[in-house]
């Protein structure tokens, strides 16, 4: 571009940025006074920019070629970390414009800005400059005008090379016309020259090569910049450069020799050689001077780390603009904080001195505050400065980042972490850097708006100042002139109010600050004496004498003392007790700082007043601090002033204070500050307190006695000390250690007696016992004998109380004490503690009068705290809750997804989804599934819950279950109108968010699709229908809610369930959560989702006969065996039959995969023998267990594929007619592969709806039905056998599990522990466990013995109370009525039982155990006042259903299953043991013999059969057929009782037939 310009060209001074293309830039000011291109600072909405303007010399001048070059250059510079290209390049009719980001300081500016650059920082900037040039040259980019003004430096010393000008400035200049140089290159007018000598051509000379800028020219300029960086002045002006070309000037002698570092000198001299070919490339310089000029950690680690912190686009961070604050400085501090342990290791490792990992133990409770503990992850330790650092290293570079970020932080937590980092880096800095580079930044945070930051800044500054070993002369007066003025606002009487917490921390720190200030003063005096500190007046320097130094030192010390005195007095007299308490920690340091006379005036004069303060914690702290003060003041002042106060404090009403006084005595005694005579007196007083009931006081007294004996001779110890303490000892110990004294002490006076004696002292009127204590003025001692306790310890013996004068009142109180347990050996203890009790009692009374009641001792009224109550009215609450549940807004419990799932999703392609669609089922199957989704399932669904991540992915992320959101960044919910998103339409409601950038790395976890550029939400309703693929599992899976809806709900904290239910308009999340929880408690989810609660009567109900005349009053109902109906709809074995709790219908579960619902009212009217509704699990799945959700019409069915279905029956029974809606699936859960539930129970507990499942893999799983989340899992021992059934007690405190090996396992559900295990002798499977929900219930067990019997147990005592035994069972004696404790049994016992029990006989099956059991208690009359009548219904493999009468066993009958010719059995009672009653069935001889039809297993009596009577053959056959139709022809698997409208017995068998008998 230079070829088109000349010295007569229009000057750039008239250029401006008032063109339409730059309308978004607002002019601020002009930069520099260049003639060629004018630089302007302008403001853009995203920050400041620099616009460089060049005016065209004439209108037709074309800039296209330069624009093209600059665009290519910008593209290449985008990848160079240390280069800053132009953001806009444009040409207009009058000129060209280049726009780039504005950075506050260039290298030229930085050299003259405080804090001045240290050696390591200059090397770091030189390194970055060489890296920038290397990267540009590697891309064939040459700068052409490298100078300090074109090198930009950020506040954290990141360097940018900018304003590349090789594409438009001339490469060569005429040597004889310096005006060209001034026009193009002398922007500042300083006449400094950085151009290589070869760029100046003599008259008529032609440039070599192509006439462009080469790499060697840039290297020369870099050498000049580095030289100026280290010298802080340029090495060439234009005239000097011409002389240098001719050999008349050498900067090596005049300038470069001043650089201390020899390697830096060599580097610069090599770069500024005259011959271009003798210079090296930037890459070679970096490699050759590695480890010499540039430390090893610059390469790789430091540059990459600094670049990641500097560049906001790395890691896809959002860019902070001028109008918003996204916490970028906070993130930088957070990153360095979390990486500090690695940074410190790499910085020290590269230096070759790897520090040992700091060992850190947590601080002790009463440890000193300083040195502080640095709390950085993996780097916790106490702050200690590194030994004698001479120069700074890479730690200073990192420190610069932290201090530059601190000022821009948005959160107080980031500033707190920044202060931790400053302290950690300060350990590794030179002393000068600590004071110049760290303290000023910490001091600015002393006035932060956050109290935590103020406290952290104060503590950090105190610690850093204390770590400085050598103070430079410039920092001589850092305390009086800098630190203390900034701490003035922390004083209580300052104009700015500071909280007591901050003042308390200042009180903790002031002692350390004073010690540090005194040390600095001494160092400055040493420097003055040495002569290294300049005087204030240079003219008098020669006349300085040592006396002048002393006077100056005294003057400085006086100023410092006065400054600290002001602060100390203000804190010592603070109105807040916590501040004064903290001040006591600093008292000993301040005493030493102020010196003896001044300390008495400033510090000690205020301390005595602390003992009059009602705050007992202040007094405790006083006695902890007084030991240091005692050492300072010496023995005389101690005994004259401090000791009387301490002895008086022994009678403080607060026992903590008493203990602290005695501990202080011990510490002073260990230091040897007491005279012998005072020691005896103190021992006499303190030894009495060994009889105090408080163990801490006793231990402290023993410690004092031990400490007092430390400096006594053997003679003194045994002649004086032992006599004083002998009354309190059982035996005199051989040594006087604290432990031995404690072991030798007698028992203390009980607390009850102390309290009674206090009452006696309070109410004593004429009694003589307390007179001596009353006459004694103070509980202390002085020069006179009468002030000591009236009775010395030497005079105490068992008869001391009897010798004392007493009157009737005293005797009366002593009798009360005797009745309360005071023995004669306790008498002397009461006398010894007499003065103590008297003083404590009366001080307590006087203190109580003067005290205002503490607000913490009573209920605080909110109005006292200025809180105005807000009344919230609930409106339409029920409807709002119901609507929220119907739309699935409360659908919770989705499992968190793992990274593995997200990666699986990310690897799934559209082709996989298409393939899945191609595998879709036939058209009818799809139609049935769509109809099922649309009609049968009308509430929002939930995915299956599985245990393994792979299962979770297949269940949650199949194409049918997750919306296809790969096509758009806007996610649209799918489904028919009946299946709604939990939040309605996308972004519906009041939560509208602008389009936000998302972190794409972690967004995989929140979505079921590929990561894409952006996601957004909008408030538009969108409806669509997409093809669905089949569920991947056999069991039916319903669609989950839209992933966008889920993500938005989990992400948005402002999601509220029930906004419309109340009139609260605020946005406080805590209040909204409280209102939501109140609504949920008022309308629990079971009320709406599982249907209304069925109210059950707590009393037994009367069971009626169908015919009214059959119901005589006072006689309980008994089934007659009349067949009412048979149902044969099931095509496989019926496993369970259950009757609803309101007796409206019953349900049956079968191996054919169905649960059928049977209407009772239809049976009554003989309308239909068909089931009303059928719920079907998947094809080929057997229904294994069935249970009703307590007090509802919902049931839980479990299949052998591991599925758990919670189904609601919509039943309406009004006016004698019943309506059954289609069964609705409410919840579904999937157990892991190979696991399925074999038994299930349900109960409600603590606002939870709990479903308990026992699985075939010996696990017990508890689920919360409302959220389908797992509450707990118990693992039963596998060797106990497969679970078959279990029961839970009525409070849900324990569970009893029965297994296929006859084992009973007892589990505690509160602590999730297996408590005990027992096993039946027969080791046969247990079929049923039944525990009535009444007080002190009996436990009913069928199975276990291998015989057809029911055992009834008092399980608390483990005693079998009753046995109901069928006729085909053997009496195996006590083996039926006793259990073996499995936990105490020897190994091999289980195996031995199997060996004997598994031998089937020829005439019977292996297990005759009863399969079905009903226990019921019925009312005898209408009133229901009587106790009730209990009966049992049983059924099993002998095809018979029996009724057992518990009150009249002889009335028991066989309801169904007797042969046509079989006589009715009889029932007898026997009592083999005092606790056990056995009701057994006796089979009678058959009345006639008929052909047995396949009932070999029916009877084991082996009775002989008579020959048949003469009868027609056809008659016999028809009679036999009729009889067969009336009873079961296979093993009966379950039995149930229907109480309303009249009593009926329901039984179901293995062939799938259900019978009903009256």
From TrEMBL:
<dbReference type="InterPro" id="IPR016024">
    <property type="entry name" value="ARM-type_fold"/>
</dbReference>
<dbReference type="GO" id="GO:0006623">
    <property type="term" value="P:protein targeting to vacuole"/>
</dbReference>
<dbReference type="Pfam" id="PF22956">
    <property type="entry name" value="VPS15-like_hel"/>
</dbReference>
<dbReference type="GO" id="GO:0034271">
    <property type="term" value="C:phosphatidylinositol 3-kinase complex, class III, type I"/>
</dbReference>
<dbReference type="GO" id="GO:0045324">
    <property type="term" value="P:late endosome to vacuole transport"/>
</dbReference>
<dbReference type="Pfam" id="PF00400">
    <property type="entry name" value="WD40"/>
</dbReference>
<dbReference type="InterPro" id="IPR045162">
    <property type="entry name" value="Vps15-like"/>
</dbReference>
<dbReference type="InterPro" id="IPR015943">
    <property type="entry name" value="WD40/YVTN_repeat-like_dom_sf"/>
</dbReference>
<feature type="compositionally biased region" description="Basic and acidic residues">
    <location>
        <begin position="915"/>
        <end position="936"/>
    </location>
</feature>
<dbReference type="InterPro" id="IPR001680">
    <property type="entry name" value="WD40_rpt"/>
</dbReference>
<dbReference type="GO" id="GO:0004674">
    <property type="term" value="F:protein serine/threonine kinase activity"/>
</dbReference>
<dbReference type="Pfam" id="PF00069">
    <property type="entry name" value="Pkinase"/>
</dbReference>
<dbReference type="GO" id="GO:0005524">
    <property type="term" value="F:ATP binding"/>
</dbReference>
<feature type="compositionally biased region" description="Low complexity">
    <location>
        <begin position="1488"/>
        <end position="1504"/>
    </location>
</feature>
<dbReference type="InterPro" id="IPR011009">
    <property type="entry name" value="Kinase-like_dom_sf"/>
</dbReference>
<keyword id="KW-0418">Kinase</keyword>
<keyword id="KW-0547">Nucleotide-binding</keyword>
<dbReference type="InterPro" id="IPR008271">
    <property type="entry name" value="Ser/Thr_kinase_AS"/>
</dbReference>
<dbReference type="InterPro" id="IPR000719">
    <property type="entry name" value="Prot_kinase_dom"/>
</dbReference>
<protein>
    <recommendedName>
        <fullName>non-specific serine/threonine protein kinase</fullName>
        <ecNumber>2.7.11.1</ecNumber>
    </recommendedName>
</protein>
<dbReference type="GO" id="GO:0005770">
    <property type="term" value="C:late endosome"/>
</dbReference>
<feature type="repeat" description="WD">
    <location>
        <begin position="1127"/>
        <end position="1168"/>
    </location>
</feature>
<keyword id="KW-0723">Serine/threonine-protein kinase</keyword>
<dbReference type="InterPro" id="IPR055231">
    <property type="entry name" value="2AA_helical"/>
</dbReference>
<feature type="region of interest" description="Disordered">
    <location>
        <begin position="905"/>
        <end position="991"/>
    </location>
</feature>
<dbReference type="GO" id="GO:0034272">
    <property type="term" value="C:phosphatidylinositol 3-kinase complex, class III, type II"/>
</dbReference>
<keyword id="KW-0067">ATP-binding</keyword>
<dbReference type="GO" id="GO:0071561">
    <property type="term" value="C:nucleus-vacuole junction"/>
</dbReference>
<dbReference type="InterPro" id="IPR011989">
    <property type="entry name" value="ARM-like"/>
</dbReference>
<feature type="region of interest" description="Disordered">
    <location>
        <begin position="1012"/>
        <end position="1052"/>
    </location>
</feature>
<keyword id="KW-0808">Transferase</keyword>
<keyword id="KW-0677">Repeat</keyword>
<dbReference type="InterPro" id="IPR036322">
    <property type="entry name" value="WD40_repeat_dom_sf"/>
</dbReference>
<feature type="region of interest" description="Disordered">
    <location>
        <begin position="1483"/>
        <end position="1517"/>
    </location>
</feature>
<dbReference type="GO" id="GO:0016236">
    <property type="term" value="P:macroautophagy"/>
</dbReference>
<keyword id="KW-0853">WD repeat</keyword>
<feature type="domain" description="Protein kinase">
    <location>
        <begin position="25"/>
        <end position="299"/>
    </location>
</feature>
<feature type="compositionally biased region" description="Polar residues">
    <location>
        <begin position="967"/>
        <end position="983"/>
    </location>
</feature>
């Amino acid at each position: 571009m230079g070829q088109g310009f000349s010295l007569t060209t229009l000057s750039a001074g008239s250029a401006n940025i008032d063109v339409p293309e730059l309308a978004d830039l607002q002019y601020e000011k002009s930069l520099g006074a260049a003639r060629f291109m004018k630089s302007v600072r302008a403001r853009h909405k995203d920050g400041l920019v620099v616009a460089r303007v060049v005016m065209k010399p004439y209108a037709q001048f074309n800039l296209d070629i330069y624009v093209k070059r600059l665009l290519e250059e910008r593209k290449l510079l985008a990848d160079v970390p240390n280069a800053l290209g132009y953001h806009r390049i444009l040409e207009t009719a009058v000129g060209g414009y280049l726009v780039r980001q504005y950075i506050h300081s260039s290298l030229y500016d930085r050299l003259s800005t405080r804090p001045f650059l240290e050696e390591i920082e200059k090397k770091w900037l030189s390194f970055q400059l060489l890296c920038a040039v290397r990267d540009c040259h590697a891309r064939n980019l040459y700068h052409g005008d490298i100078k300090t003004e074109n090198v930009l430096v950020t506040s954290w010393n990141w360097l940018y090379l900018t304003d590349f000008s090789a594409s438009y400035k001339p490469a060569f200049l005429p040597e004889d016309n310096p005006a060209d140089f001034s026009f193009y290159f002398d922007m500042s007018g300083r006449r400094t020259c950085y151009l290589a000598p070869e760029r100046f051509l003599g008259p008529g000379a032609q440039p070599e090569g192509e006439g462009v800028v080469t790499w060697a020219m840039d290297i020369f300029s870099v050498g000049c910049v580095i030289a100026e960086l280290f010298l802080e002045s340029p090495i060439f002006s234009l005239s000097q450069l011409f002389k240098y070309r001719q050999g008349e000037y050498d900067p090596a002698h005049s300038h470069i020799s001043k650089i201390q570092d020899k390697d830096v000198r060599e580097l610069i001299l090599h770069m500024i050689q005259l011959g271009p070919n003798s210079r090296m490339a930037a890459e070679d310089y970096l490699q050759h001077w590695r480890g010499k000029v540039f430390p090893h950690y610059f390469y790789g680690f430091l540059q990459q780390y600094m670049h990641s912190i500097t560049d906001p686009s790395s890691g896809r961070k959002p860019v902070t603009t001028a109008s918003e604050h996204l916490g970028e400085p906070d993130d930088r501090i957070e990153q360095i904080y979390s990486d500090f342990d690695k940074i410190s290791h790499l910085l020290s490792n590269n230096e070759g001195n790897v520090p040992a990992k700091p060992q850190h133990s947590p601080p002790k409770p009463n440890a000193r505050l300083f040195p502080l503990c640095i709390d950085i992850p993996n780097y916790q330790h106490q702050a200690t400065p590194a030994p004698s650092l001479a120069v700074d290293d890479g730690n200073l570079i990192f420190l610069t980042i932290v201090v530059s970020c601190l000022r821009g932080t948005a959160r107080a937590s980031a500033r707190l972490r920044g202060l931790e980092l400053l302290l950690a880096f300060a350990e590794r800095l030179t002393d000068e850097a600590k004071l110049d580079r760290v303290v000023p930044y910490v001091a600015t945070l002393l006035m932060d708006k956050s109290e935590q930051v103020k406290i952290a800044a104060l503590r950090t500054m105190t610690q850093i100042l204390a770590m400085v070993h050598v103070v430079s002369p410039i920092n001589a007066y850092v305390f009086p002139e800098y630190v203390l003025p900034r701490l003035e606002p922390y004083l209580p009487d300052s104009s700015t109010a500071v909280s007591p917490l901050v003042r308390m921390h200042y009180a903790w720190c002031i002692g350390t600050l004073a010690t540090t200030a005194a040390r600095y003063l001494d160092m400055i005096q040493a420097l003055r004496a040495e002569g290294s500190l300049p005087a204030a007046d240079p003219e008098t320097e020669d006349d300085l004498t040592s006396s002048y130094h002393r006077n100056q030192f005294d003057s400085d010390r006086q100023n410092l003392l006065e400054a600290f005195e002001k602060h100390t007095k203000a804190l010592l007299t603070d109105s807040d007790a916590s501040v004064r308490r903290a001040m006591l920690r600093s008292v000993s340091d301040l005493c030493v700082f102020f010196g003896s006379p001044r300390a008495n005036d400033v510090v000690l004069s205020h301390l005595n007043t602390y003992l009059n303060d009602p705050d007992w914690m202040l007094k405790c702290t006083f006695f902890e601090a007084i030991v240091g003060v005692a050492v300072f003041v010496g023995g005389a002042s101690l005994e004259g002033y401090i000791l009387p106060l301490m002895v008086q404090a022994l009678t403080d009403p607060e026992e903590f204070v008493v203990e602290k006084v005695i501990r202080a005595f011990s510490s002073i005694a260990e230091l040897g500050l007491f005279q012998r005579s005072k020691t005896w007196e103190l021992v006499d007083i303190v030894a009495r307190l060994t009889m105090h009931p408080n163990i801490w006081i006793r231990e402290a007294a023993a410690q004092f006695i031990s400490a007092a004996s430390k400096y006594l001779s053997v003679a003194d110890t045994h002649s004086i000390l032992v006599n004083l303490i002998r009354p309190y000892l059982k035996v005199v110990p051989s040594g006087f250690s604290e432990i031995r004294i404690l072991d030798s002490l007698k028992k203390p006076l009980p607390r009850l007696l102390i309290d009674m004696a206090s009452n006696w002292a309070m109410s004593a009127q004429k009694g003589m016992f307390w007179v001596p204590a009353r006459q004694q003025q103070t509980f202390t001692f002085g020069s006179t004998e009468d002030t000591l306790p009236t009775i010395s310890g030497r005079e105490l013996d068992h008869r001391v109380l009897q010798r004392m004068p007493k009157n009737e009142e005293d005797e009366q109180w002593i009798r009360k004490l005797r009745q309360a347990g005071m023995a004669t050996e306790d008498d002397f203890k009461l006398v010894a503690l007499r003065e103590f009790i008297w003083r404590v009692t009366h001080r307590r009374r006087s203190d109580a009068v003067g005290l205002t009641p503490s607000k913490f001792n009573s209920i605080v009224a909110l109005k006292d705290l200025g809180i105005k109550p807000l009344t919230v009215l609930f409106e339409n609450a029920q409807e709002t809750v119901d609507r929220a549940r119907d739309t699935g807004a409360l659908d919770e419990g989705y499992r968190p997804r793992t990274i593995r799932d997200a990666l699986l999703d990310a690897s799934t392609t559209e082709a996989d989804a298409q393939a899945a669609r191609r595998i879709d089922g036939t058209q009818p199957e799809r139609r049935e599934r769509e109809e099922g989704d649309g009609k049968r399932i009308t509430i929002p669904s939930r995915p299956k819950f599985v245990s393994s991540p792979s299962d979770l992915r297949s269940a949650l992320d199949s194409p049918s279950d997750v919306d296809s959101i790969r096509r758009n960044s806007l996610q649209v919910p799918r489904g028919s109108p009946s299946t709604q998103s939990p939040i309605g339409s996308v972004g519906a409601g009041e939560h509208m968010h602008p389009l936000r950038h998302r972190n794409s790395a972690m967004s995989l976890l929140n979505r079921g699709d590929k990561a894409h550029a952006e996601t957004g939400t909008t408030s538009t309703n969108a409806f669509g229908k997409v093809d669905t693929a089949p569920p991947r599992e056999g069991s039916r899976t319903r669609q989950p809610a839209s992933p966008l809806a889920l993500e938005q709900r989990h992400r948005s904290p402002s999601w509220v369930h029930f906004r419309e239910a109340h009139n609260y308009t605020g946005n406080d999340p805590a209040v909204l959560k409280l209102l939501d929880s109140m609504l949920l408690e008022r309308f629990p989810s079971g009320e709406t989702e599982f249907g209304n609660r069925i109210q059950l009567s707590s009393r037994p109900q009367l069971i009626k006969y169908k015919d009214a005349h059959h119901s005589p009053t006072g006689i309980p109902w008994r089934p007659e065996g009349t067949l009412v109906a048979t149902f044969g709809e099931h095509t496989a074995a019926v496993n369970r039959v259950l009757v609803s709790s309101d007796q409206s219908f019953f349900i049956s579960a079968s191996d054919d995969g169905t649960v059928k619902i049977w209407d009772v009212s239809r049976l009554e009217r003989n309308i239909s023998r068909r089931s009303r509704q059928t719920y079907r699990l998947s094809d080929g799945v057997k229904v294994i267990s069935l249970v009703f959700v307590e007090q509802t019409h919902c049931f839980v069915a479990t299949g052998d594929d591991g599925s758990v279905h919670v189904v609601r029956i919509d039943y309406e029974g009004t006016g004698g007619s019943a309506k059954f809606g289609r069964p609705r699936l409410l919840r579904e859960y999937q157990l892991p592969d190979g696991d399925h539930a074999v038994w299930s129970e349900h109960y409600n507990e603590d606002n939870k709806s709990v479903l308990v499942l026992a699985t075939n893999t010996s696990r017990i799983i508890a689920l919360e039905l409302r959220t389908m989340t797992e509450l707990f899992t118990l693992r039963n021992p596998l060797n106990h056998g497969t679970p078959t059934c279990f029961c839970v007690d009525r409070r849900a405190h324990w569970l009893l599990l029965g297994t296929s090996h006859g084992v009973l396992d007892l589990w505690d559900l509160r602590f999730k522990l297996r408590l005990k295990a027992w096993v039946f002798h027969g080791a046969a499977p247990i079929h049923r466990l039944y525990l009535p929900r009444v007080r002190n219930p009996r436990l009913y067990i069928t199975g276990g013995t291998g015989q057809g019997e029911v055992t009834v147990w008092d399980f608390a005592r483990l005693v079998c109370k009753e046995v109901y035994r069928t006729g085909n069972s053997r009496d195996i004696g006590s083996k039926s009525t006793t259990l073996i404790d499995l936990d105490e049994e020897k190994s091999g016992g289980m195996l031995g039982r199997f060996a004997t029990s598994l031998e089937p006989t020829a005439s019977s099956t292996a297990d005759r155990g009863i399969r079905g059991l009903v226990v019921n208690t019925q009312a005898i009359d209408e009133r229901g006042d009587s106790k009730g009548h209990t009966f049992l219904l049983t059924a099993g493999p002998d095809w018979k259903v029996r009724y057992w009468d518990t009150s009249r066993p002889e009335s028991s009958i066989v309801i169904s299953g007797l042969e046509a010719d079989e006589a009715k059995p009889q029932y007898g009672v026997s009592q083999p043991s005092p606790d056990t009653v056995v009701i057994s069935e006796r089979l009678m001889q058959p009345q006639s013999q008929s052909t047995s039809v396949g009932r070999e297993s029916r009877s084991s009596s082996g009775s002989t059969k008579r020959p048949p009577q003469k009868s027609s053959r056809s008659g016999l056959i028809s009679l036999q057929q009729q009889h067969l139709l009336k009873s079961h022809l296979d093993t009966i698997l379950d039995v149930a009782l229907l109480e309303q409208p009249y009593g009926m017995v329901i039984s179901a068998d293995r062939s799938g037939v259900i019978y009903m008998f009256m």
